[in-house]
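Dear colleague,

Thank you for sharing your sequence with our group. We've completed the structure prediction you requested, and as agreed, I am returning the results in plain text so they can be pasted directly into your records. Please verify that the sequence below matches your submission; if there's any discrepancy, let me know and we will rerun it promptly.
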Amino acid sequence: MCSMYFYLLKLFCRPNVGEPIKPFFIVGLGRCGSTLLRQILQASSELHIPPENWKLGNIIQSYPRLCNCLSWEEFIHTAVARVEHQGDRWFTEAPTDLVHDLLDVDEEKQTLPFLIDRIYRFHGKMSGADFSRWGDKTPMNVRFLNEISALFPDAKFINLVRDRVDVVHSWAQLPDYHEVTNPSHRWKTAIDKADEFQRAYPDKVITVRYENLVSQPEQVSRRIFEFIKVDYPGSTAFEVDHTEEMQEAKDIEHYQNVFRPITTENIGKGRRNLSCRDKEKIDAIIGDLLVQKGYDRPI
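Please find the predicted structure tokens below.
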């Protein structure tokens, strides 16, 4: 089933015309430091990273099915509407200029990579950014690594990993997330998918631990910039107000730590604050995997 899907994706998705598109994708699982990394990377004038795009994987997956029954115009409206209404605060007003620009492109450019590239570049333009390359910060895209890679062969992936016990504790502070079983299973799924993809494409992926990012921010950030082949911007990367491009995040309560100096105080918070019962549940599900990944068991 999976091999047939990728055959159809390659069959129906024509490659982009012109210069290769070389995006990068921050993946993993929510509450792993992806917003912090977005803040650091956007210190580079070369880069633009919009808020999360929860529909990218869905747009790519649906393309082989829809491209035979929808015109280019219809698919444009479908894809843009998904990002507009189901992305994370992408547009403050209807992106009509984007739609008009896409409708006017030559037939040879009417490809899915071109469409997605234009959506991301339009967001950057509307944000006032002057950049040459875009990235994506949507941890859940760890579920679509193969699909994204098939669409953008030159893409790079930054896989963020954090101690699951701390992630569960962080999730538990959010509305509607008050149990540990589901987040533990999601962490295992994210780890398994990233590991499988990295084994198949080791040159496409760099795995970064949240704990290393906050305890050795300069060293780890230099390695990430080198991996995506962008000049390291120096200490500017750690200035919390170095960019106006993350204004939408400043209104979100659980992003507030990103706008404070980098700290290690959240390392180990889950083991300190979660109940023994919750830590036992986590251990039963992913205790062995935590040890395999270099973390202590919850109990």
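Summary note from our side: The longest strand covers residues 156-161.

Kind regards,
the structure core
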